[in-house]
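Run log // design_07
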């Protein structure tokens, strides 16, 4: 999400009807007017090359590149759970309390995403590979400098702000790449690539915990920075964009902002992150409140990533069968069920490990299915611009989520210490499922208006009457 990458897709499709109204939920236009708009707005044959998607070939090497990017950004970032557990127990920095360390974790996840529109502009000017190279250098410098931090504010700036900025510069350009290479296999390709975060998370949680125990927290940070930096250069060598036309650079797109689909997507991002980041960061600490060791806690955190590695491709296969939105809805229904039925009553290690594996496989579905969902909502040209705007909200929720989680933790150190936190996470996942159900109804209603027009070309000019989604409550069409 090169100069011509989909991430900078801020201009309209060249032949789109300039008089077509922006998409919004309203009851103004009649079906006849909507049909007329559709007839006026197909993309011209000059755009055929970009929309003749190969569905394989070199695209599988691009999948590997995005897999490595995910492993060394989202996956590596999940390793903060072992640092959080260590900081909370050891008091590494004088004056630091649980809210400081939780906020640093939230910043490492969210700050870069909040700055996504700026990353989008930079990406448009310098291209995909230079942006990722810059991000790799920033992330390396952030973790290396964090390993020499002596004051709390230095940790805020390095492991918090700079680490997150580097991660955004690396990860965000990759989000708009895969839809350019895959059509029928888009869901499974996205899910395989998203599984990289599981591999990276497992590796960094377990390996850095061992380094931390033997050499201390600062050597763990140094080892992680070097390993990430080396692996990212393989991804840089492999990644490639298919977009050939120069696209105007834009921080935002008013047509996207006026779209009802965008605000449904925003709600999806917010409520999902309230549950996701809590489970991602807190499992090591939760396991320790049950009376187990720090290493057993790190295994629990790693199990989340093991589940991610095996679960996301399965979710991708499901999405290919039933549609990305429907698969996401099913996944988050089960996330809510497992949180209420397993985390809340958990009193032993096997239950925690089982919960972590199941949640790892399901709760990151947003990252596996967001590329195909966004291409349905906005079309290929606007997908990455819409991403960058949605990431502001996703990053803000991710920034707040760990602080909320620790604020809900009680002062006791027993098994019920995280009870309010677990209830909050379960409710967040349930709300995510509700939002996805609304998104599904909205897309089905818009598909009715679109007729045979391909969603990759864009349905942004269509207006969905407010009542029309209600006609699809019992519609089992795949979407």
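design_07 sequence
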């Amino acid at each position: 999400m090169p100069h011509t990458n989909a991430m900078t897709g801020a201009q309209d499709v060249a032949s789109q009807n300039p008089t077509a109204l922006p998409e919004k939920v309203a009851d103004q236009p009649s079906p006849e007017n909507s049909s007329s708009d559709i007839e006026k707005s197909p993309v011209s044959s000059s755009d055929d090359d970009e929309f003749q998607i190969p569905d394989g070939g070199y695209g599988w090497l691009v999948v590997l590149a995005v897999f490595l990017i995910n492993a060394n950004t989202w996956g590596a970032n999940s390793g903060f759970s072992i640092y959080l557990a260590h900081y909370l127990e050891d008091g590494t920095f004088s004056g630091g309390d649980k809210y400081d360390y939780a906020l640093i974790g939230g910043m490492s996840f969210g700050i870069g995403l909040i700055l996504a529109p700026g990353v989008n502009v930079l990406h448009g000017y310098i291209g995909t590979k230079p942006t990722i190279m810059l991000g790799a250098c920033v992330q390396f410098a952030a973790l290396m400098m964090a390993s020499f931090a002596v004051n709390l504010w230095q940790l805020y700036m390095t492991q918090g702000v700079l680490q997150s900025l580097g991660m955004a510069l690396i990860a965000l350009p990759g989000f708009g790449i895969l839809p350019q290479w895959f059509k029928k296999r888009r869901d499974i390709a996205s899910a395989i690539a998203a599984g990289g975060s599981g591999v990276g998370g497992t590796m960094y949680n377990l390996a850095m915990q061992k380094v931390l125990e033997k050499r201390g927290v600062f050597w763990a940070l140094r080892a992680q920075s070097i390993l990430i930096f080396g692996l990212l250069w393989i991804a840089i060598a492999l990644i490639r964009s298919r977009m050939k036309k120069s696209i105007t650079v834009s921080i935002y797109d008013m047509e996207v902002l006026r779209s009802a689909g965008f605000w449904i997507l925003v709600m999806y991002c917010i409520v999902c992150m309230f549950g996701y980041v809590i489970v991602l960061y807190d499992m090591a600490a939760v396991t320790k409140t049950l009376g187990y060791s720090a290493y057993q806690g790190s295994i629990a955190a790693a199990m989340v990533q093991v589940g991610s590695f095996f679960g996301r491709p399965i979710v991708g296969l499901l999405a290919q069968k039933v549609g990305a939105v429907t698969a996401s809805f099913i996944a988050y229904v089960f996330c809510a069920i497992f949180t209420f039925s397993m985390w809340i009553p958990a009193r032993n290690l096997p239950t925690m490990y089982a919960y972590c594996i199941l949640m790892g496989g399901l709760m990151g579905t947003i990252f596996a299915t967001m590329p195909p969902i966004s291409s349905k909502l906005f079309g290929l040209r606007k997908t990455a611009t819409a991403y960058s705007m949605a990431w502001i909200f996703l990053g803000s929720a991710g920034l707040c989520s760990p602080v909320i989680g620790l604020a809900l933790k009680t002062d006791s150190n027993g098994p019920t210490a995280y009870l309010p936190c677990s209830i909050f996470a379960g409710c967040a996942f349930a709300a995510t499922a509700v939002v996805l159900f609304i998104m599904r109804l909205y897309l089905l209603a818009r598909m009715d208006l679109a007729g045979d027009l391909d969603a990759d070309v864009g349905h942004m000019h269509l207006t969905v009457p407010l009542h029309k989604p209600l006609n699809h409550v019992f519609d089992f069409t795949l979407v």
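The CA atoms of residues 192 and 313 lie 5 Å apart.
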